[in-house]
Amino acid sequence: xxxxxxxxxxxxxxxxxxxxxxxxxxxxxxxxxxxxxxxxxxxxxxxxxxxxxxxxxxxxxxxxxxxxxxxxxxxxxxxxxxxxxxxxxxxxxxxxxxxxxxxxxxxxxxxxxxxxxxxxxxxxxxxxxxxxxxxxxxxxxxxxxxxxxxxxxxxxxxxxxxxxxxxxxxxxxxxxxxxxxxxxxxxxxxxxxxxxxxxxxxxxxxxxxxxxxxxxxxxxxxxxxxxxxxxxxxxxxxxxxxxxxxxxxxxxxxxxxxxxxxxxxxxxxxxxxxxxxxxxxxxxxxxxxxxxxxxxxxxxxxxxxxxxxxxxxxxxxxxxxxxxxxxxxxxxxxxxxxxxxxxxxxxxxxxxxxxxxxxxxxxxxxxxxxxxxxxxxxxxxxxxxxxxxxxxxxxxxxxxxxxxxxxxxxxxxxxxxxxxxxxxxxxxxxxxxxxxxxxxxxxxxxxxxxxxxxxxxxxxxxxxxxxxxxxxxxxxxxxxxxxxxxxxxxxxxxxxxxxxxxxxxxxxxxxxxxxxxxxxxxxxxxxxxxxxxxxxxx
Length: 538
What we know:
- The structure is a single chain.
- This protein is α/β, with parallel strands linked by helices and 538 residues long.
- The protein has two domains: 39-259, 3-Layer(aba) Sandwich (Rossmann fold); 277-528, no CATH class.
- 39% of the residues lie in helices and 16% in strands.
- The chain is built from 21 helices and 20 strands.
- Strands 9, 10, 11, 12, 13, 15, 16 and 17 form an eight-stranded mixed sheet that branches.
- Strand 7, helix 11 and strand 8 form a beta-alpha-beta unit.
- Helix 13 runs antiparallel to helix 14 (306-315).
- The longest helix has 27 residues, at 277-303.
- The chain is globular and about 80 Å long.
- The termini are far apart.
- 36% of the residues are buried.
- Residues 346-447 form the Phospholipid/glycerol acyltransferase domain.
- One of its GO terms (molecular function) is glycerol-3-phosphate 2-O-acyltransferase activity.
């Protein structure tokens, strides 16, 4: 007798589930369509992968669940932390970290609202967009699953849907790097040009999908987002559903650099790691020691001779490796260096990793050299332990200044004109070729595990402080064979820009970096929206 109430309850629950979840059994039961857009019966596939050879999907539009069908990690916390620190401040990031235990007890919807309030409140759209374009793409690419990207490549049209991450911070990445046609997501309210820290109500998204009317659509992502009551009507027009389970996502592979849909050459931001809760906690625990350590390291290199500052710096964790050093083990210059007296100084040409490149070369040579600078703040020049030569971007005036500096001693030039963090070389400016008969290429590479020592923002004058805040900053310096600046190929003398390209290619070959024709202007226009000119009085 007790089984009848149970049977009635089970049947009632089954009917309720069918109404909420659609018809996963595959029968042709139709929901009532009040939206004006055709509703297809659902065909649900538990297999997470869509092969690029599936011809029946070529003419369909893919609705891609960003959190469930593209990114490997189920947590969106790192992206909000990046917005909090990079667009806001370390204090804002610390507040978000302190709230993390509370976030673990909340639903995803409430988590998003709390994180948006902490991260976005009071920020301008300009700051957020700068982080969305310059900082977040690197971290998104490192989290993209190779299997999810294959799905996008296998369809003609793809629309991104983000339930947890606000559209403003994910749309630039999805359109520029993944190639999505449209991105639908939550909006953050703005009041008088600043974010109010509140999410807009979840719209049904019908207007967003109007362009796809008449096109068969396929859903690819997590089951939780697809079966969400708030979004079910948005995807009622999907003909097929490909569900990705959390167990299957744990087996997804990260993208290798050569598998990126678009090369990642430029990116900005101070954090060199993925700010998961654990990694962020470690960073904040290290931060007080890092501030004291960077002040100590800076004072050492500015005030003490290299013979003293370099060993002490090594004791504090600064690692430097020199290959083919022109200075002998006892600190004496080579015979070629000693024979060169009362002559024009050497011109060292190197790729540009941080503002400290010329300082490291000077310390390795154990002698004072001059360094060419452009658009560097006066504060950075005052702290420099070596003499700097400020360029004006007037070709004749710059030539005069560099020739004068070479008459006084050795000179270090970074022809790229700006730093590049990734394994690429920007175009070399050819002016250095016209100054001397031979140049001395130097290949540089450095590692920063916690903080990047480069920036395109207003805090650029703090670059070297951030670099020395790393627990173990490392540099590798490779002195290469000298190269003539007058080169004849097939009976024709090479132009100065061709020689510059040859020097760039040789440095790239030693480092394994890829040469490009991109310039300083390209970098700053992409990351900062300007041409990278810093006021000398700033």
